[in-house]
Amino acid sequence: MDRNPGAAEHPAADPDTTDPGATEPGPAADLDTPGSDTPDPDAAGRGTPVGRRVILGMLALGAGGMAAAPWLQRRLEKFLAVAAENDPIGVTGLLPNGGGFRYYSVTSSVPHKNAENYRLTVGGLVDKPTGYRLVDLRALPQHRIVHDVQCVTGWRVPQTSFEGVRLATLLDAAGVRPGAGAVRFTCFDGAYSESLTLEQARRDDVLVALRMRDEPLGHSHGGPVRLYVAPMYFYKSAKWLSGIEVTHEVQPGYWEDRGYDVDAWVGKSNGRDDAATT
């Protein structure tokens, strides 16, 4: 799952656990958790954990998936995504998944949104606060990025495509006011948040994503809309995105309050890598 706010893949969410070599967290964040990509250390005891037979079955499936065809990998990921919604303590995120997404959760449940009830707000230090429906976002110019998804816990999903609206497009439409220096993101799981500097937010490889792997973004991966920050660890790619707020300065997000780096460039611990994504 993106470990992102809520439940999920962390990336998120989008939706990552702590990595001693790079102090980051996990979605919106694929620490595809709702809003984030990282398991919640405080989540123990919320709800009923998945059963022993299910865990053993997933272990067998995960091991088999290591050498499975891509179509089987996708089916395994969908199975794990459903199981993760009934796994409040994050056990499914620890299971082998043959190079696919892991699914975690930072809340016990996340509401499902669709074209009828989804709204994304853009506000804060802007001249024109705006609200977007799914149809509005789909009508804007769409951009596609193919890049490896990297979780701070070490797992990676290579050459993953995301499509959506460049965040810079929404910021330009809203009219960022002088004195603004950062952008804060909130998620409809009610818990996850993330931030970028304004300079980072305007990069061409930062998207408000609507599609992933050439399909509409599903709920378990942070859909219908998530943030995607290609050059950073996946916990920055908040899942279940609901709000974009322009602020004076960066405000630490969900995992950063728990010890992760605010600047989460992939490879930072081995020499910063923030080159433009191709």
Structural features:
single chain; 278 residues; alpha+beta; 5-stranded mixed beta sheet; 5-stranded antiparallel beta sheet; 5 helices; 17% helix; globular
Order of helices and strands: HHEEHEEHEEHEEEE
Helix content: 10-25%
Query: For the residues shown, what is the average pLDDT?
Result: 76
Would you identify the regions where 5 or more consecutive residues have pLDDT less than 50?
Answer: 1-31, 33-52, 62-67
Number of helical stretches of at least 4 residues: 5
The end-to-end span amounts to 24 Å
InterPro entries: OxRdtase_Mopterin-bd_dom, OxRdtase_Mopterin-bd_sf
Region (Disordered): 1-49
Protein name: Molybdopterin-dependent oxidoreductase
Pfam family, one: Oxidored_molyb
Provide a brief overview of the structure.
By secondary structure, this protein is an alpha+beta fold. It has helices spanning 52-65, 70-84, 134-139, 167-174, 198-201, and strands spanning 120-124, 130-132, 143-150, 156-166, 182-187, 193-197, 206-212, 215-216, 226-229, 241-247.
Question: What can you see in these coordinates?
Answer:
- Residues 1-49 are annotated as: Disordered.
- Residues 109-255 form the Oxidoreductase molybdopterin-binding domain.
- With 278 residues, the protein is an alpha+beta fold.
- It has 5 helices and 10 strands; from the N terminus they run ααββαββαββαββββ.
- The protein has a 5-stranded mixed sheet. Strands 3, 4, 7, 8 and 9 form a 5-stranded antiparallel sheet that branches.
- A hairpin with a 2-residue loop joins strand 7 (206-212) and strand 8.
- Helix 1 (52-65) packs antiparallel against helix 2 (70-84).
- The longest helix has 15 residues, at 70-84.
- The two termini are 24 Å apart.
